[in-house]
Amino acid sequence: MTAERTGTRHGSLMVVADKQGAMLEVSLHTLTTSILILAAATVLLNPVPAMFAQTPERQVAVTIDDLPAAGAKSMTAVAIKEMTAKLLTTLRDQQVPAIGFVNERKLYQFGEVDERINALRLWLDFGFELGNHTFAHSSLNRVGLQAWEDDVIQGENVTRLLLAERNMRLRYFRHPFLDTGRDLETRRHAEAFLVARGYRVAPVTLDAWDWMYAGVYEDAKKRGDNALQQQLVSSYLSYSDAVFGFAEDLSRRVLGYEPRQVLLLHANQLEADHVAKLLDLMRKRGYRFITLDNALSDQAYSLPDTFVAEEGSDWLEHWAITQGKPPQGAPVFPQWVIERSKAVRQTQP
Ligand SMILES: [Zn+2]
């Protein structure tokens, strides 16, 4: 559904209702005929009231990577569980379906394995789904096909058992770094391997690099720097808004319509603390939140896709490049956040 179609539909109804009062004298048959003619004429003339044109219907599935936590290495199991519960409470209370993608290597911290597994189990307790993101977050573009396939298989053990407790099946896979292969032969081989193991690939169409903000945010929070935290949240939201606008335009240019989008977030403190603001921002843009299953029923996800590159990318770029139309003018990620992020990584042990 596009903005224009929605506006037209509501516009027709309004005009018909206005005219009805003036037609009370005429017979029911004439009235019905008049309304039908009027409605048809209204559709042809296509008057779109601005108030409706500004509220397009959009749909998006929320996906969250790097479970149980992107920063699991430097967190205690208690902290991971608190962060997870906070994030999931917001999503559940706002009735936002979500799926989390797991790196099982992050579970194996001495003395904490059970509690870290319980943090994952929370996702299912709250009614969400889990998928595989490989054991060790290996890039298909870096480690080679055989090692990558081994990493996919090793990433299944705990997640599959947790899902089985709820009679659920492990059915989605998300490529680490969105790296889908440097050449088409590798890409297709990996895809066939995933299908053979019962997976559907979880694509991404909206990605505002929350992970880059999150590292700086977590450091600022530890140091009690409230001003920086606020600056980061505000920058994250405005960059996200710009990314969504760009993706919506690109969708219309490449596909001729806006597909059901798939948003990429990460399991981090920034999202746990502020995801409600991001959800508000998306609702203002007209988004309704749907399951990944529902999103992938959009025909866009069956379009030709021959994208290969050294660096992974989102699926709108896949389709644009497949059509020979590389996207131009994407919003620029704020340089100051990149600098801060580098500085934080250098000072970490
Ligand atoms: Zn990841």
Relevant terms:
TIM Barrel; six-stranded parallel β-sheet; 349 residues; 8 strands; 55% helix; 2 domains; disordered N terminus; globular; two-stranded parallel sheet; binds zinc ion; alpha/beta
List unreliable stretches of 5+ residues.
1-48
**Can you tell me the number of structural domains?**
2
Give me the strand/helix succession: HHHEHEHEHHHEHEEHHEHEHHH
Q: What is the strand content?
A: 5-15%
Identify every distinct bound molecule in the structure, by name, code or SMILES.
zinc ion
CATH architecture of the largest domain: Alpha-Beta Barrel
Structural class by SSE content: alpha/beta
Backbone shape: globular
Q: Main β-sheet, in a few words?
A: 6 strands, parallel
The tally of strands reads: 8
CATH topology of the largest domain: TIM Barrel
CATH class of the largest domain: Alpha Beta
Helix run count: 15
Mean pLDDT across the residues is 88
End-to-end gap: 50 Å
Rg over C-alpha atoms, rounded to the nearest angstrom? 24 Å
Please identify which CATH superfamily of the largest domain we are dealing with: Glycoside hydrolase/deacetylase
What does this structure look like?
The chain is an alpha/beta fold. The chain has two domains: about 5-55, no CATH class; about 60-340, Glycoside hydrolase/deacetylase (TIM Barrel). It contains 15 helices and eight strands. The strands form two sheets. Strands 1, 2, 3, 6, 7 and 8 form a six-stranded parallel β-sheet that branches. A two-stranded parallel sheet has the order 4-5. Helix 5 packs across helix 8 and helix 11 crosses helix 12 (about 270-285). The longest helix has 30 residues, at about 225-255. The model is unreliable at about 1-50 (pLDDT under 50). The structure holds zinc ion (ZN). Zinc ion binds near residues 65, 66, 133 and 176.
